[in-house]
Amino acid sequence: MAVGQNDSNDIVENAMMSKDHSTLVAAVKAADLVDVLKSDGPFTVFAPVNSGFEALPDGTVESLLKKENQKQLQAVLTYHVVSGDLKASDVVSAIKKGNGTATLTTVHGSQLKATLDGDKVKITDTAGNTATVVAADIDSSNGVIHAIDTVLLPTK
């Protein structure tokens, strides 16, 4: 899961350098969130790889990318963003302090649960869908990206 990393690039620029995040980049553009994710932040982005989008039911991505579904797409994408610059070590420390679970509040306003499965960080949405962090600590000028293998979906 190679993400093009350059510490001087912002989150959007680093995602654009990654062949594994082309669907996410298209979604960020369609949702009109580029300027937000290029702002000062800092942000922690749990960025689904292309295969995570491909695993959604047929037609889901195409439907979300339509102009009339922009608000729904914005909700899905902001559900993957947490305010602050949380490195993998910060997430793991929070999980340990929380006796095995850390609760992360997203920019969307909902929560994600972070847990450990061996040495792998798992992120679970409110519907019970679980993503695994497949690449961590992609530093950017305005935060950090952690690549995940599943698209998380808000329930509200």
UniProtKB/TrEMBL annotation:
Residues 8-152 form the FAS1 domain. It comes from the Bacteria. PANTHER family: FI19380P1 (PTHR10900:SF77), PERIOSTIN-RELATED (PTHR10900). It holds the Pfam family Fasciclin. GO terms for cellular component: extracellular space. This is Fasciclin domain-containing protein. The lineage of its organism: Bacteria, Pseudomonadati, Bacteroidota, Flavobacteriia, Flavobacteriales. InterPro entries: Adhesion/Biosynth-related, FAS1_dom_sf, FAS1_domain.
